[in-house]
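ok so for the tutorial part 2 we go from a plain amino acid sequence to predicted structure tokens. step 1 is just haveing the sequence, like this:
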Amino acid sequence: MSQVFRAILIIVSVITFFYIARKLKKSQVEGYDAIFWLVFSAVLILLSVLPGIAGTAARLMGIQSTENAVFLIIIFTLLMRSFLMSIRVSQLNHKIRLLAEQTAILEKKLHDLDGGMTEPDKAYERTYIENSESAEESEREKEAVEEVVAV
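step 2 — the prediction. this is what the tokens look like for a chain of 151 residues:
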């Protein structure tokens, strides 16, 4: 592995490690995601500091160039991560759809209980405004409900 490639790999990995650690500290990233990126950058640092590991892995995989083996490992790892994230997104979309359906059912029931005095899509909004402590809080809640309904 060339010195330039090792230096670039170390610099990018260290920057990534500290960036993710800072985001985790500020609670801007979930622990599950942060752990993946911290371990991933630590492995890249390890591969660049100890190039013998990458060379051995390249020989075991039948790859002549150590750099190609490192790129292959990185690409495979990121493809697997992308696949796992697709699964998570699909599961979350399913949950959102279920929540929207349940909300619609509850709004319909509330509309029926009101005796048709309110429109079904406005029933939750009217009930919440009557019970809210402040107008600002109700505005935030209305925006959140509109975002969920839009999805």
